[in-house]
Amino acid sequence: MDADGYLKEENYSSVKEKCLVAQVDKSAFDRAWSFAFPLTDIPVLESLTFKGIYTLGENDCMDFMILVATSLKGVKVPQRGATEFPQPYLRRLIDSN
């Protein structure tokens, strides 16, 4: 996968949604991509459609969001509240930046 810097209309969210936009270089993009698709570096497994096992106790959506955000240079990542839900946390993450 290449990250050539091509900008286009975002297709996956409503125009009413707020997003955290971060400028990244190819190495930052590749690092974030590897969090979502951890087995693409393994030649024997790279062509598999199934790329991993999701377990709620170990890798919930907030942990994933925090992992990607902390890998991006200059993004401020607030501490996660013990009982905080994903949408309010995402709002705080966006507002922090």
Tell me what the structure shows.
Helices cover 34% and strands 0% of the residues. The chain contains 3 helices and no strands. 0% of the residues are buried.
In short:
The protein has 97 residues and is mainly alpha-helical. It has helices at residues 26-36, 61-71, 86-96.
Search tags:
mainly alpha; about 100 residues; 3 helices; single chain
Quaternary: single chain
Compressed to H and E, one letter per element, the order equals: HHH
* Distance, first to last CA: 28 Å
**SS element count, helices:** 3
How is this fold's topology laid out?
Elements (H helix, E strand, L loop, with lengths): L25 H11 L24 H11 L14 H11 L1
Helix pairs in contact: 1-2
